[in-house]
Model the fold of this input.
Amino acid sequence: MNDLNYHILKLPLPLRLAHVQSFLIQGPKGYALIDTGIGSATGQDELTQALCQHQVRPQEIRELFVTHYHGDHWGQAGWLSEMGTRVIMSRIDDDFLQRWFERTDYEEINLAYYTKQGAPPELAQASLKALKWLRTLSPYFKATDLVDDGDEIMLAGLLFQVILTPGHSPGHACLEHAATGTIFVGDHVLPHITPNISVEPGTLADPLSAYRSSLKRLLHRGYSLALPAHGPIIRNIDERIHEILEHHIERESLLLAAMSKTPQSCFALSQALFDFKRLDAWESWMAMGETLAHLRALESAGRVFSHQDSDGEKFSRLLGTTS
Done:
């Protein structure tokens, strides 16, 4: 088995999730990067310093592969592109991102959507502020190369294959290096926490079901290493995938147990899964999104039904459904 020469760049985040990992790949044709950290001046300096620790200048990066459209993964893509770096991203996530750049009212759309899910006004306004702040860390860029599931790409002169794994984002992409049994998993599989799977307006209607299918795609492929964007290397990805799948079964059981004959909002039901007193505005928003993803999956499975009333959308358990 050939060696894959890579370095982990641990880049700070201004969030409770304190770091994101970028991967510097060295190959026969120079250097490539997987993900970049946030798009601030500070983030630019931190990425530059991390590269310099390996005697690499930013302008030496030939290719950048972006795993998905969340800003902590592509924040410096535009800056690198200006220096001649090819920016590679899934066609699906690039499509959403370009629409997000065009729609400066996206945060308000998100706010209106989750207000109908029962978000109290104070949470909605605090979350809106957090969403707008995150936009300031996300400067415009356009990928130069768009890829689809199964595409083969060259990074630093090495051959990789794109594996689309929708769920955390509609077009989340993992990158397989078959020669070494290595897979770069972005936020698809994380070692100590479960990736946030949320319903977002204009994206996947049932992201959790998509995510489960994506997880199962990576089972039994013989990977020796899985390299995540947050946390340590995963050496037994099959075991971790089974743990995550079981986690979501347990969360659905908690939701079903919390349902009564009286229809309830997503926010009311989210109290069964999360202690909001321990969460900041951004984390509370993600908690609601994750709860709604579970409810949509249960609805798709015929275990829950939803209806609209004057206060918004409400959910009930179907008769005969057990937790």
Q: What stands out?
A: The mean pLDDT is 94. Residues 181 and 224 are 5 Å apart (CA to CA).
